[in-house]
Amino acid sequence: MPRSRLGVGTFGEISTQQTPSGRFRARVRYRDGHGRYRQLESTGGSRADARRRLQLKMRTVSDELEPTSEITGGTSFADLVAYWLAALEAEGELAISTRERYAWEAEHLLLPAFRDFTVREITVARVERWLTQQRAFSYARAVHSKKVLSLVMGLAVRLEAADRNPVQGTRRLKRPARPPMALEAVELDVIRDAVASWRRNGTSMGPRPDGQLEAIIEVMVGTSARIGEALALRVCDLDLDAEPPTIRIAGTVVSPKSRPTYRQDHPKSAKSVRRVAVPSFTAEAVRSRLAVTGALPQDHLIFFSRNGTPLTTANVRRRLREALRSAGVATVTPHAFRRTAATVVDKHGGLDLAAELLGHTSTAITRLHYIQPDEQVDARTAEILEHLSPRSGRSHEAGVCCTSR
After folding, report:
1. Fewer Cβ neighbours under 10 Å: the N or C end of the chain?
2. For 97-112, what is the mean pLDDT?
3. Domains of the chain, CATH where assigned
4. What residues contact residue 112 under an 8 Å CB cut-off, 6+ apart?
5. Which residues lie closer than 8 Å to 392 by C-beta, 6 or more apart?
């Protein structure tokens, strides 16, 4: 058999022949784990006996050449997922909240579709059909599903349990045409008024607000901070005496299922660590908040619960929804404040400045996800196009003959 047809760890055809002594010799060629060609042979009193002895040797060699990883092509997909999650836990490089999100998505998105398949049975066609179903549910669900499955199958490739990552062979998911929307100044004022009047008329149920929600909104609008980043601000992150005042964004608040909410000492990415010069209304909101809290240690959060613990993003979102609903105002998410800040800065200072403010490494991300498209065309076009205004006898004066083109 030609050498090119033998893969590593595979055997050629067995050949047998009778020796001058009357016994039988069986031989076979194979490639070892280093890619070198070797030969096995055994002898016996008959052809069948020689082949049987050789096959015992071949079985021993095959066992030695089996992949050392406990994950192979025949491993169940559920076991591969468990192995992947355990590896993430052991590496400890991802935030706890990220690992918990991956575990949830694997359990609720991946395993219902692929639990009963082996690793080698996760094919491009199966993945393509599954992603089509996920896309029918929502674009966001399909994107998350595709990302997590690609991470899992990427591990299978590295462990040589799969020859390639089937996710990479699927078609690209097309984002629906839905441009980001920012708030107008008048809309922002309506939101401010709704939050300021929430539960303060004496008839509403529930405890009287402590003013933190108003200050949190002004911080998000004036810094473009994510909600978790705003809640993670400490006294040492503030320099309100500078001209202009600045706020350093250097952490975020996370709420893992396995432990209490805490301040993580870094935001979403390294680029997200930034010191932002803030407008006067943001500085004033923070000063008002500190006037309520009194003197605090430098490493103390400026937004916190009555027990002194970090506020959860879920709780702040709920308060915002309730305040807007009670005032009959359409609900907005905290991320709308971030998009609003980005859109205003882009309009007056350019896309690069907006990306820098948001802590993005790419202006493409800023433009695609955060900048509301401006439909207004520069008014100078009207003045320029006046050159095409009709003038009596212009073509004859200029000696121009008009022809169709």
Report:
1. C
2. 91
3. 3-65 (3.30.160), 77-169 (1.10.150.130), 210-321 (1.10.443.10)
4. none
5. none
